[in-house]
Amino acid sequence: MLSAYDAAVFAEENTDVAELTVEAPVVDQTAVDKQDVVEAKALAAENKTGEEATGNDADLGGSESYEEAVAKQNALQEAERQALTAETKRKNLERAEGYDFSIEANDGYVWDEEGTITGVTIGGETAPVVKEKPAAQKAPVNNEANRITMNLGSDPKSEMNFQWFTTDPNPDYKVYIYEEGNFDSVKAWTPEMTAYQGSYIQKTEDGHYIFAVTEPNDEDIPLEDKKIIGYFTDEVFSGDNLKWTDKGFEDYAVGLPYDPVAETAYTVNVTGLKPGTRYGYQISKEGFPAVVPIGSFTTAQAGNQPFKFVHYTDTQNAFSSDNARKEAAYSESTAKAILATMPDANFAFHTGDVVNEDYNDSEWVETLSALEGLTYHMPHAFGQVIMIMNIS
């Protein structure tokens, strides 16, 4: 076995296996033959006794056979150390492959004795599954302009496009455009309004998302045709649960949507702008000026002039992480960093993914609200695009 010193060092470095006993060490092929080690130890003991008898205890170099024995004893200790390391690795692998560390122990349905699903474990945290759907808030209603975006027109020297949403249609909404510093130049633009079906995920009264557990292996079946066998919320899942924040619910459930929400989409194509000009704008239903955010942009220069742009990507906010680790906060941080680093950029490319599920307005609201500090002041081109640039 190891010396007391070596054992103490090993125990300090490997506290979880400090009491491990090696019953059958497996010596590495490079170690000395075990029989030679036994003989070396015996020879070392014999020589040591002889040295003590002749008073030559300090003269370790006086006997070649003694030096040889010490070397072999050191080799034995190294072999034992290697064997203990190998055994520790084996036991750790065995533990890692055991049930307590398995996917089954940390992820999956929880069943009772009657075969009923009573919980869902995701990333080691278990949400109880109940038969009755938790009481939900009413579907969201927002009649202030939201999800505002400003997009490049076909001719960025003279055009700019705007889009926003409200729940109910309101013909009083207009975009007011003016040359920055000159309110007398303001011009009102009337939007085109289009009926839109919003899709939002249900929330409980205290703000937790509701998920429907469906029959296993029916992930390709539309929700209306699925057999819902229970419900759970995101209340138990923490921000440290990386499986949950990586949309871990998708293996076991679906976010439960409200019935389609009737909303209104507004679009405006502003034309006739001056090249190389800084403009301010407001989107208002109360005339101009109004107590609403003021945005700004600069049109492209006439002719071939240098310009700056920002490229960023993959905000991909997933609604399911909002209460655990709000991904939209990272989008907001990115927007602030862009404005601090390149406040004079002419436009921005966001090449996706903007949100996790494009149909999910819960995600669009969170993401575009987080980015509005940037999107109010920098025209955007959204989408997954390939940029081919010839710089010479």
How is this structure best described in words?
It comes from Aerococcus kribbianus. GO terms for molecular function: acid phosphatase activity; metal ion binding. Pfam families: Pur_ac_phosph_N (PF16656). Keywords: Coiled coil. The structure is a single chain. The chain is an alpha+beta fold and 392 residues long. The longest helix has 33 residues. The protein has a 4-stranded antiparallel sheet. The protein has a 4-stranded antiparallel sheet with strand order 7-6-13-14, with no helix packed on it. A 3-stranded antiparallel sheet has the order 1-2-3. The N terminus is likely disordered. Helix 2 packs across helix 3 and helix 6 runs parallel beside helix 7. It folds into 4 domains: 94 residues, no CATH class; 73 residues, no CATH class; 104 residues, Purple acid phosphatase-like, N-terminal (Immunoglobulin-like, Sandwich); 85 residues, no CATH class.
Tags for this entry?
392 residues; alpha+beta; Immunoglobulin-like; 4 domains; four-stranded antiparallel β-sheet; 17 strands; 23% strand; flat; acid phosphatase activity; metal ion binding
What does the secondary structure layout of this molecule look like, with pairings?
Elements: H1 4-13, H2 34-54, H3 64-96, H4 103-106, E1 108-111, E2 117-122, E3 125-128, E4 146-152, E5 160-166, E6 174-179, E7 187-189, E8 192-198, E9 210-214, E10 228-233, H5 242-245, E11 253-255, E12 261-270, E13 278-284, E14 295-298, E15 309-312, H6 327-341, E16 347-350, H7 361-375, E17 380-382
Parallel strand pairs: 15-16, 16-17
Antiparallel strand pairs: 1-2, 2-3, 4-5, 5-12, 6-7, 6-13, 8-12, 9-10, 9-11, 13-14
Helix pairs in contact: 2-3, 6-7
